[in-house]
Amino acid sequence: MHEDRKTAKPAILFLCLGNICRSPLAEGAARAAFAKAGIDAVLDSAGTGDWHVGRAPDARAQAEARRRGVDISDLRARQLSVDDFYRFDLILAADATNLRDARAMRPADATAELRLMLDRLPGRGGQGVTDPYYGADDGFAATWDDVNAIAAALVDEFAPSSG
Ligand code: 4NP
User: Fold this and answer.
1) Beta partners for 39?
2) CATH code (residue 60)
């Protein structure tokens, strides 16, 4: 498996706390953007916490994705595992807390690069994608706008012609 990692399709894991709001929205936006661009990629999401393992995305996240033309209803929450640090090229954390928690479990010989999602957007580096979980429903629209811009940046980055 490992020998395929760099030569074959890019493998990107989106990480947040619960894996029911931000990271499944990021996975959904990325799946749509990579498919539209015709780029074959392994795209997945996980949470640092285990409270929602096995659950579908938050109903408000599903509704926002559906409103943008993307169905994320089949995604199921899972917790970040040590294996993920070898299976993915890139692990993108939604905020500084997720990044810190992931760093704490990152093996010394991990092959995955670990960064913030918004480090992919000029002028937004170091920022966190706002957690809409405890806020009003319209927070999910802002979250979608962020993760959709991140997905577009990743498509540019991993497009075969861009090297
Ligand atoms: P997420 O949002 O990390 O974007 O999936 C959250 C989901 C659940 C909780 C917090 C944030 N929670 O505390 O249960």
Assistant:
1) none
2) 3.40.50.2300
Domain count across the chain: 1
Judge whether 46 lies within some domain. Answer: yes
Q: Is-catalytic flag, 22?
A: yes
pLDDT digits (tens, 9 = 90+) for 62-90: 999 999 999 999 999 999 999 999 999 99
Q: Measuring CA to CA, how many Å separate 132 from each of 8, 32, 67?
A: 35, 21, 16
- DSSP strand pairing (11-16 vs 42-47): parallel
**Residue 16 known to be catalytic:** yes
15 touches ligand 1 (CB under 6 Å): no
DSSP for residue 1: -
The Å distance, Cα 51 to ligand 1 centre, comes to: 9
Q: pTM value?
A: 0.94
10 Å Cβ neighbour count for 101?
18
